[in-house]
Structure formats: structure tokens, C-alpha cells
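Fold this sequence, please.
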Amino acid sequence: MKPQRIALGCALAALLAMPATAWASSTAAPTPSPKPAPKPAPTATPKPPPPRRVGISGVWEIQIQYPNKTIYAHFSMHQHGDALEGTYLSPDGKKSRLAGSLSGESMVVVVTLADGKVLRFESQLNGTTDMVGMLTKANGKRVVFTASYRPKERFFDSLSPVPGGLGGGGIGTGGGGYNPPR
């Protein structure tokens, strides 16, 4: 047994003679490799913002004001410089092409109906959200109209079933109006 004790004693002496840093590194347990960081949970991609509005482009609700009643129609216009193009939705739900122009705050829109008759809307703009003017009908009669910009993403989403876009249609809102075709 003595040779084993001598060998054990020599090994112990050798360990004690080593510098502390060498001894710690030779006896330390191996360090585990770093674990990859957990991936963040996927998040919903935000919707991109709607395209910027150019000038007076967009949907406009038109109030044609006769002495005894007001009827409603709509423009869906796209502005390209001083030129306008788009669609007119009549009070009875028929679509017609429109073309027009801008000069400062003055606007002229010409609507050609399916039967070839022409409507001429001449107005003054108040910023990019309101207008007031005169409608010259195919028979030459003139009627006052106003129009208001209705910001929505799609043309038919912008149509209000109740005049003035107030919703509800209860007492005191003017009643009437029309429901656009679906």
C-alpha cells in the first residue's frame, strides 16, 4: 500500500504546487456552449398608410339644392395637375364619366350622361374639403349646389345612406336620402 500512498501524495503535492489559475482551469467543469437567444414571437405587420391625397382627389358628396328639396349625388375624382377625371354617381344610382379642370380655387366639372346630355358644375373651393357653386342642367336651368369631401378608402364606402353623412336618419336630420346600389 505504500507505493499507492506515495503516488497519491505526489499527485496532491503537484496540485498544491500549481498556480491557482492553472489549477482552476484544469479542474473546472467545461462551460456549456451558449444557447441561442429565443426568437421573438411574430407580430402582425401594420397596414401601410393610405396613399396621400392629391389636391381634391377623392369622393365628394354633392347636395343639389332645389327650392323645395335637396337631392344627393357623388363625385369620385382624381386630380392630375389642373385636370380632373372620374365618375359621377347620380341620385338614382347611375354612373357617368366626368372631366374637369381647376384654376386656383375655381373648378369646372362636366358630366356626360348615358343619354348624351351634359351637366356642368362650376364652383369655388374652400380648401380641399368644401365647395359651393352652380349646376347648369342639360335644359339650361341653373341650380345651387354644395359639396363636401368624404375621406374613405373605397368609393362606395364613402356614400352615406343619409344626407349630410350624419347617420341614423332620425327626427331632425332631414330624412330622405337614397341608398346607393350595391
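The longest helix spans residues 2-17. The chain has two helices and eight strands.
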